[in-house]
Structures are given as structure tokens and as C-alpha cells.
Amino acid sequence: MDGTFSWPGIALLFAGGLALFLYGIRIMSSGLKKASGQRVHRLIAKVTGNRFYGLVAGAFATVVVQSSGTIIATLVGLVQSSLMSSTQSLSVILGAEIGTTAMAQIVAFRLHDYALIIFAAGFALSTLGKKEYLRFTGEALSGFGLLFFGLKLMAEAVSPLQRYAPFLALLHYVDNPWLGVPAGMLFTALMQSSGAFIGIIITLAQQGSLSLEGGIALLLGANIGTCIMGVLASSGMMRPAKRVALAQVIFNVSGVVLFFPFIHLFAEFIRQLSPSGDGSGVARLALEVPRQIANAHSFCNLFLALLYLPFLQLFDRLLYRILPDNPEESRLLPAVWYLKDSALSTPQLALSYARAEVARMGSIASKMVYASLYPFFNREAGHDAVFPHLSVIRGISMREEKLDFLENRLSDYLIKISRSELNEQQSREVFAFMEIVKELESIGDVIENLEDKLVEKKRSLKSDLSEEGKRELIELHNLLCREISQLADALKDMDAVKAGLLLQGDEHFKQLVAKAEIAHLKRVCRMAEAEVTHNIHMELINVLRQVHHYSKSIARSIVDAVES
Questions:
Q1: How far apart are CA 418 and CA 429, in angstroms?
Q2: Residues 375 and 282 in one domain
Q3: At which of 322, 356, 387 does a domain end?
Q4: For residue 228, what are the CA distances in angstroms to 69, 189, 233, 548?
Q5: Which of 221, 111, 153, 120 has the alpha carbon at shortest distance from 1?
Q6: Which residues of the chain are modeled with pLDDT < 50?
Q7: Are the C-beta atoms of residues 403 and 361 closer than 8 Å to each other?
């Protein structure tokens, strides 16, 4: 930039640099995630009670994803789905806070002048690389180059402000921790990216515009502001998932409380640890302070992680005391009711437990079928039949999560039973159950996909299904509900007679489907409004047909298991 001072020019250049910086982070993160495959999610999901393993997993995952907020949101989802306990998530949260410091360390290296070279190398590798991991590595490298080029543009944008007295006075206020910490918290919460805000902090420091004390105050605020994504992700979730977000808030707020009174002493300590630069005045600050800020960030988060790590069990009890489980909510969480590993040594007993859990799956699936058409016939959200505080759609989603969970647990349990000494009848029943749990889970998927795809589409059309069409769908749905109810009864005792009656009703259901489709197509020809909802109407018929197909397949498995 020349000597002229233009606010629009500064704002445009800074905004462009920030956009490139954020886009570079996204590209780098995407490349790293592709290069690592599904290792990140598997790594997090397989965390056990080993706190050190969880710490490393959280740090590694955050370095790859470049967002502690994303990792916390992932943990919230895993805990909500009962794939991890809130207790197990604590060490991963501490690791994620360590992982966030990697971006500060990377940005503190003055690689601006090599940004385009790095980008070109990455682009060449992603374009010319013959192996998949080379292309993904190149994608990550090109994002790395864009990141630094964005920082270079931001540095050029703020360079003229070094001579602008009001701006320097504003930065001088940041040296006051009572202003710096709230400012860091606010900007990070608004940007929803601590990495982006840290990039801005270090860019200012590289221009000699920001002191170490001011940078530390902003970083402490950023540590609180980064909690916003976890808090938002946990809203509307169960209490165990909310404890994940609460844990991050307490970790980071306690860090601010611990370091806040000693910012000046902490800054002197970091200066002693960090290498000193040559020169004097602003030039020396521009060389030293970025590295010092990055080191302060790393030391602060690492110190807090190591401080909390030995006391995670006590901290977990504190979280439970602050936010205890709600008994009513516990009924909404996926859980097994009957399966007992202690029964595996007695195959007949283990099979009886598996039969009870499969019957429970059938009952859950039947409730989803009962509720499936409600959102298409009513404008209000409605209330779940068992949990009135849930909407109908939320009740369907909750039960689909239960079916997914039970399908995984039952499949594992049945495989363990199959390794025992079984007679021919027991073997048939085990393999029949394996097929049945897959079919029941498929019923849940079909209905869940129906609600995800079509409910919003129907609302956007602002047009209702015809009354004749509703009556036809209701007739089909009522028949299907009777079928699924009979199927649930058949599953309780593996009753081949009841299952056989379901198979006999197959032709009647097909006739009703054909009749409904023909009647609807005739309406489309004579009524313009029927054409508007044609796709939704046909998709609803198709979903009912699919559920009938799965229920028929389950009934056949029951008959084959008992009568073969």
C-alpha cells in the first residue's frame, strides 16, 4: 500500500485476507481429514477410560480438524448417542484445548513470503499426485499456503494503522485485562473460530501493534469465546451431552480465573522462555511478540490440561452435582434393557434375553410407524404419544437413534451367542434374529429419511394433500399399523402362526397400494392442486410399501426360524 490512508481500502484488503485465511483453514482441514480417512472419528469414538489416550486423541483430532469447537460438537453427539460417556469425554476436551495451540504456533512462523510457493507446491501435488493420499496431502498443503497468503494480506492491511493514533490508543486499552479478555471472548464468539481470531492477534503482533500482555488478555478471552460452539451444539440435548459443553466452559473459565490476576508476571515468564530478537523498538516487538503469544497460548492450555488430568474423577462428580441426570430424560437415551453378558455361557438363557430385546425393537419401530404420517396431515408439531414434551418428529428421531444403537448391540451379542455350542434350532433362531434386527433398523431408517426429506418440502409447497388422497393414505397406514402391531406380538414369542397370518395379508396390501396409486393419478389429471403434491403423495405410498416389505421379511424370518 502507498502512503495514502483509505478506510475502505484497509477494510477491503483485511476482509479479503481474512476470507482467504478462513478458506485456507477449511481447505487444509479438509485435506488432512481425507488423508487420515475416518481415523479421527474412530480415534475419538474408541476412547476408553484411559485419560492419557483421550488427551492425545483430543489433541490429534483438533490438529487435523483445526477446530476445537468441531471436536466438542462431535463429543456432544457421541455422548448424546451413548457411544461415549460424558466421563470419557473429559480427557478428550483437555486434549482438544491443547490441539488449538497448534494453529498459533504455525501462524507465529513468519512464512508469509513463501505462501504462494507453498500453495503452488500443494496445488501441483494435488493435481499430479497419482496416489490418493498424495492428492489429499497436496490439498492440505495448498490450504496451508492460502492460510499464510491471507495473513500476508491482513498484515498489509493493518500496516498503515501503525501510524494512526486512534487505532494505537484503542490497542493500548487492550493492555488492560478487564477490557482485553471480554474483547477476545466477544470476537471469538462472533467469528466462531478461535483459530481465525488468533491469526488476527498474531498478525497485529507481527506489525508491532500489540504487546504481549494485550495478546495474552485477548487469548484468555478467546479461550472462553470458543466454548460457544459446544454450548450451541448441546442445546436441546440430554443432560450427559450438556455436561460435555459445561466441562469445556468450566475448564476454560477456570484458566482465565487462574491466569488473569498474574498476566504481567506470566508475560515476564514467557519472555524468559522465548527467544529474543535483534534490534529495538517496534521492529523488535514485531519479531518477538508473535512467538511469545503463541508460546503463552501453548503453555496456558498445556498447564491447565496437566493440572486437571489427575483429578478428572473428582471433576466428573462436580459436573454431576451441577447438572445431574434427569430420570425422565434417561428413558429417552438409547440403552439395552435385557442383554446380559453373564448369560452368554448359557445359550438358551442368552437367546431369551436377545428375544426380549428384539421384541422391544419391534415395539419401538411400531411407534415410529404409528407417528409417520402425522406431520403430513397436521400443521402443528404435535406431541409424542409417550413423551408429550417431545414433538412428533423429535420422537421419531429419538426412536431411530434407539434402533441404531440396539441394532449394533444386538448384532454383537448374537455373534457372541453364535460362537457357543448351539443345537440346530438355536442356530436358526440366532441367524433369524440377525436378519430381523437389520430389518427393524431399516424400518427406522426409512421413516427417519421420510421426515428429514419430505416434511420440510411439504411445508415449502404451502399446499395440502387432497382429502381423497389423505383418506387413501390413512387406509393404507391403518392397515400397516395393524401389521406392525401383530408383528411386535409375534416377535415376543417368535410365534410362527401370527407371523404366517401377516404373510397371508400381503396380497390385500398390494391391492390397496395399486388402488391408491391409480386413484391419485386420476386426480392429477383432473386437479391442478393434486399435481403440486404429486411427488410427496407418491413418496408416502412408497415408504408405506417399503415398511410393509420389511415387516413381511421379518415375518418370513420368524416362520423359517420356527418351522424349518
A1: 10
A2: no
A3: 322
A4: 8, 6, 8, 44
A5: 153
A6: 1-3
A7: yes
The dihedral over CA atoms of 222, 226, 231, 232, expressed in degrees to the nearest 10, equals 120
Question: What H or E segment, with its residue span, contains residue 271?
Answer: helix 263-273
Same domain, 368 and 442: yes
Calculate the CA 297 to chain-centre distance: 26
Residue 343 · residue 353 · CB < 8 Å: yes
Cell numbers of 386, please? 409417550
CATH label of the domain that carries residue 540: 1.20.58.220
Three-state SS annotation for 15-26: HHHHHHHHHHHH
State the Cα–Cα distance between residues 107 and 27, nearest whole angstrom. 16
Per the CB < 8 A criterion, the answer to whether 86 and 240 are in contact is yes
Domain stop point among 322, 357, 373 = 322
Round to whole Å and give the CA distance between 198 and 294: 9
Position 329 in a domain: no
Please check whether residue 339 lies inside any domain of the structure: no
* Cα separation, 479 vs 127, whole angstroms: 56
Chain segment 60-92, per-residue pLDDT in tens: 877 766 667 767 877 777 777 666 777 888 888
Report if residue 40 sits inside a domain.
yes
Tell me, yes or no, whether 527 and 378 share the same domain: yes
Cell of 209: 501493534
DSSP assignment of 290-302 equals HHHHHHHHHHHHH
Which residue in the block uniquely carries the three cell numbers 490508543?
169
| Cα–Cα dist 154/134, whole Å | 30
Domain that holds residue 245: 7-322
> Structure pTM?
0.60
Query: CA 513, 517, 520, 526 torsion: positive or negative?
Result: negative
d(CA 175, CA 135): 44
- Whether 100 and 237 share a structural domain: yes
CA distances from 109 to 103, 145, 206, 287, 494 (A): 10, 13, 10, 10, 67
- Pair (306, 380) in one structural domain: no
Integer CA distances (angstroms), 380 to 371, 392, 530, in order:
14, 10, 22
Q: Is 317 exposed, middle or buried (0-12, 13-18, 19+ CB in 10 A)?
A: exposed
Q: If you search the block for the grid coordinates 418428529, which residue do you land on?
A: 393
In tens, the pLDDT along 360-402 reads: 999 999 999 998 888 777 777 788 888 888 888 888 888 988 9
CA angle, residues 373, 375, 381, in degrees to nearest 5:
145
Query: Is there a domain that residue 334 lies in?
Result: no
The average confidence (pLDDT) of the chain is: 81
Q: Which three cell numbers stand for residue 240?
A: 450427559
Residue 528 CB neighbour total at 10 angstroms = 7
